[in-house]
Amino acid sequence: MRDRTLSEQELVGKGVRNVEAWARDDPLWPGQLAILAALLLYLALPPALTIGPSWLVPAIEGVVLLGLVGAARRGRAEEQRRMLAIGLVVGAAVVSLVALGLLTHYLLAGGHARGADLLDGGVIIWATNFLLYAVLYWELDRGGPRRLGARHQRVAPDLLFPQMSDERFAPPGWKPGFGDYLYVSLTNQTAFSPTDTMPLTPRLKLVMGVQGAAALITVGVIVARAVNILG
């Protein structure tokens, strides 16, 4: 997953009004906290929707998360930390998609899962994906976050925020933070498409497409059918 570093002249040539907004100096803890919350949500999934014991996947990924926190505190290489973090989030997202597939199977092919479990599972899967994709956008965009004080380069963006193209939308010194990526994830998951923040690269378009499709299935088919079963 190779990023494209750009000079300041190249950035200005692409119409960017606030070049400094492209530099990443995010603290790492918001993403780590969001991953932890997603793993705890997985523990709440009904047993029928989990792979093996419900604690197995969160335990494995929890160990990896602890390793990430330790690596960041010891100042290990940023790119290695970032690749491990992306791998952790992608792995958790794949597990969530498997749970979504199992939920679809129980609704369409029948099974022994109760209607209440199906509804609870749909809500948990929706919330888990919301957190995981927010972290994924945060890690992918503009070379990912960096520890405070760590050396960083300006990297071509994967997401175009309105504040990056028009200074009228950006207060002085504005930079996208984790909350902005949470908002991108929320709008993509509720509208099933990007809204005010546009994907610029094929990998972000792919990620947003997968998230939108999963949300559409969860909200439009699975939750609706679960409500019908309860009725």
Give the number of helices.
8
Based on CA atoms alone, the radius of gyration comes out at 19 Å
Strand content: under 5%
Our count of domains comes out at: 1
Poorly predicted segments: 5-16
Q: What strand order characterises the main sheet?
A: 1-2
Note the overall shape.
Answer: globular
Topology:
Blueprint: H1 8-13, H2 29-43, H3 56-73, H4 78-108, H5 115-140, E1 159-160, H6 162-165, H7 178-191, E2 198-199, H8 202-230
Antiparallel strand pairs: 1-2
Helix pairs in contact: 2-3, 2-5, 3-4, 4-5, 4-8, 5-7, 5-8, 7-8
Which labels suit this protein?
globular, 231 residues, two-stranded antiparallel ribbon, mainly alpha, 8 helices, 2% strand, 2 strands
Structural description of this entry:
The chain has 231 residues and is mostly helical. The protein is globular and about 55 Å long. The chain is 62% helix and 2% strand. It has one domain. Helix 4 runs antiparallel to helix 5 and helix 7 packs across helix 8. The protein is built from 8 helices and 2 strands; from the N terminus they run H-H-H-H-H-E-H-H-E-H. The protein has a two-stranded antiparallel ribbon.
Quick overview of this protein structure:
The protein has 231 residues and is mostly helical.
